[in-house]
UniProtKB/TrEMBL annotation, chains A, B:
The lineage of its organism: Bacteria, Pseudomonadati, Pseudomonadota, Alphaproteobacteria, Acetobacterales. It comes from Acetobacter senegalensis. It comes from the Bacteria. InterPro entries: Asparaginase_II. This is Asparaginase.
Length: 341, 341
C-alpha cells in the first residue's frame, strides 16, 4: 500500500511550520484511476462528503415532489451549513411542509458555526436549537423522506429505520461497497457513517457527476441535485466557506463538498471525473488546498478562488503577512506550475 | 534525523479515523535527554509556549515590583487566555497601573476564544477589543516592562524596540540558541517568534523548572512565576482548557503551556525535567494527549485529568459515544501501561 504523500504545509518566516500528509484520487465514471497519491484503498469514513448521495432518495422516492421542495431546500439537504439565518429559514420551511418542526430533528443542538451568526443569535436573546446544527438540512430531508414514504420519522437516525435503510442501499449501490455492521460507525449528527475506500468515494462522485452507471431515476435525481446546488452555493455551506466560494465562482463545472476530519470530494461533470481527498490528520485546510490544486489541474480551471486556496497568505491579527498556507510543491508542480515558485 | 512518530489518533466505530505524527523530548536542566521520539533537532517555532520565558524580564527588570503586579497578573502575562471576564479584568488593571489602557496594546483584536464569553459579550451589546486577544496579558506585561524601564511602549512589538531586545536576549540565554534575523518569524500577536530546536525548548523549561543554569535573578523570577501560575491556573488559559485543567489538578508539581500549531511544553520541577512536543500537522489535540502521557510517565503522576486527555471518549451532539481520541499505543505503553488496552 503506498505511503501517504505531503498534501500541504504552513510556513512562517522563512521556514515550514506544519505539514499535512494524506491521500487523493481522481477517477472517471467507468472506474479508471486518472490520478492517485497516497493510500487510496484503506477504508475511511467519508463523513459529510456523502450528503449529496444521501439526498438521492429524497428525489427518487418522491418526497421532493410531494413537498414541492425547491432548489434551495435540495441544496440545503446536501449541506454542512454555518447556521446563518438563510439556512435556518429553509430548514424550518422544509419541516413545515411535512407539518413538523425542529422537535422532529434528531441531529442534536449546537450553536451556529459561523461566529457572526452565533453572536447575532446570542445578542437577540435566543438560544441555539437543532435547526442550527450544521446537518439540519440533511436531517430535515430525512424527515421529509420518512413522512413522504409513510413512515413515522421517530428514530429515523437508527440503522434499522426504513429511511436509513433506503439511504444505506443507495450508498451501497452508488459506491459499489457493501454497507454493513462491519464498516459502520456513527457520525457527529447521530446517523450511521460507513467506512469505504477513498477510491470508491471518488467513483461515486464520478457517477453522480455524469449519471453514468446510475439507474435512470438516480441519474435524474443527481442532475437535479447538481442543478440545485449550482444555483444555491450559499446553502451548501455559508459565508467565507470553501465550498460556497468555489461554487459561487465555478459551478456548474465544479462541485465540492467538505467533510469532517479532513475529507473532501469534488466533481468535474464536463470532464466526467470525481475527486476524493483524505488529510490523514483531519486537517480541513490541507484538504481544501489539495482540492483546489486537483480542480485546477483536472478541471483545467483557473480562478482567483482556486489560486487563493492553493497558496494563501497567513496574516496576524494586525493584518501583517506572517507566512503562507500552500499545497505541497509536488502537487503544485503536478497541478498548477505557475504557483510552484 | 529520526522520523516523526505516531503521537495520537482518533477512532470512530471500530477503525482509526485520523492520525497525528510529531516529536517529543524530555530533558533535564543539565541538558541530558531522558526521552526523545521523532525529530527533536529541527528548529520549530515555539509560539505561545515561551510566554513564561518572555515574562522573566517583567520581574528581573523591576516592572512587577514597580507596578505591584500580583500573582494573577504574573500568571496572565504567561497566558493564552480565552477572553473571559476575569482575564479581561486583570489585563485592564495591569495597564491601568502604568496609566494606560487597551489602546496601548499592539496585539490586534479578536473575539474571545471561549464561545460562551463571545456570546455574552455580543449579548451585552459590546464589541471585542485588544483586551480580548488571547495574548493581551503578555502584551500588557510588555507595556509594563516598557514603562518601568523608561521606554515609550509605542512599537514595543518591533524586534528593535528595547522591550523586544530584552526579551530576545532572555530567550537566547535560557534556550542557549541564538535569536537572530535568520531564525525570526512573526507570531499571530505581531511580536517576533524565533525558531529553535524542540530539544532546546525542553531544556529551557528544565532550567525554568529548577533554576539550574539560570543566573540568580532569573532563577528567582522563574520561581515567582511558577508560584503565580500554580496559584492561578484559570488565568493561564480558561474554562475547560488543557493547561487550566491539568494545573488545577497537579500544580505545582506539573506545569503545562500550549502553543499554536501543535506545540506544547511541560515542567516537572520535582523531577527536574522539561518537556517539549510538536505535533507536525499543528494538531493541538495530539499535543495535549502526548503531554498527558509524558507527564504521567516522567512525573509519575496519576490523575483523572491526565487519563482523560490520554484517552477520551468522543461524543456526538446527542451525547452518544462515537469513538475516542487517544495517545498512540507505543507512547501509551511507554508511559502508562494501564490505559494501553
Amino acid at each position: 500500500m503506498p505511503h501517504d504523500v505531503l498534501l500541504a504545509e504552513a510556513t512562517r518566516g522563512n521556514r515550514v511550520e506544519s505539514r499535512h500528509y494524506g491521500a487523493a484520487v481522481v477517477v472517471d465514471a467507468a472506474g479508471k484511476t486518472v490520478f492517485a497519491a497516497g493510500d487510496v484503498e484503506t477504508a475511511i469514513y467519508p463523513r459529510s462528503t456523502v450528503k449529496a448521495l444521501q439526498a438521492l432518495p429524497l428525489l427518487t422516492e418522491g418526497a421532493a415532489d410531494k413537498y414541492a421542495l425547491g432548489p434551495d431546500a435540495l441544496a440545503l439537504a446536501c449541506a454542512s451549513h454555518q447556521g446563518e439565518p438563510a439556512h435556518i429559514a429553509v430548514a424550518t420551511e422544509m419541516l413545515a411542509r411535512t407539518g413538523r418542526d425542529a422537535t422532529s430533528l434528531e441531529c442534536g443542538t449546537h450553536w451556529p458555526l459561523d461566529a457572526r451568526a452565533a453572536r447575532a443569535l446570542a445578542a437577540s436573546g435566543e438560544q441555539a436549537c437543532a435547526l442550527h446544527n450544521c446537518c439540519s438540512g440533511k436531517h430535515a430531508g430525512f424527515v421529509c423522506l420518512s413522512c413522504a414514504t409513510g413512515h413515522d420519522p421517530e428514530h429515523y437516525i437508527r440503522p434499522e429505520h426504513p429511511v436509513m435503510q433506503t439511504v444505506a442501499r443507495t450508498l451501497e449501490d452508488v459506491t459499489g461497497v457493501p454497507h454493513t455492521d462491519a464498516n459502520r460507525g456513527t457520525d457527529g449528527c447521530a446517523i450511521p457513517t460507513w467506512a469505504i475506500p477513498l477510491r470508491a468515494l471518488a467513483l461515486a462522485y464520478a457517477r453522480f457527476a455524469t449519471g453514468q452507471n446510475l439507474n435512470t431515476d438516480r441519474a435524474q435525481a443527481a442532475a437535479q441535485l447538481r442543478s440545485a446546488i449550482a444555483a444555491n452555493p450559499f446553502m451548501i455551506a455559508g459565508t467565507n466557506q470553501f465550498d460556497t466560494r468555489v461554487m459561487q465562482d465555478l459551478a456548474p463545472r465544479v462541485f465540492t463538498k467538505m467533510g469532517a476530519e479532513g475529507v473532501m470530494v469534488a466533481m468535474l461533470p464536463e470532464k466526467g471525473l470525481g475527486i476524493a481527498i483524505k488529510c490523514r490528520d483531519g486537517g480541513v485546510r490541507a484538504a481544501e488546498a489539495t482540492a483546489a490544486a486537483l480542480i485546477a489541474r483536472f478541471g483545467n480551471e483557473s480562478s482567483p478562488v482556486l489560486t487563493h486556496f492553493m497558496r494563501q497568505t497567513l496574516k496576524n491579527w494586525n493584518g501583517q503577512s506572517v507566512g503562507e498556507f500552500r499545497v505541497s510543491a509536488t502537487l503544485a508542480e503536478d497541478c498548477y506550475p505557475s504557483i510552484a515558485s
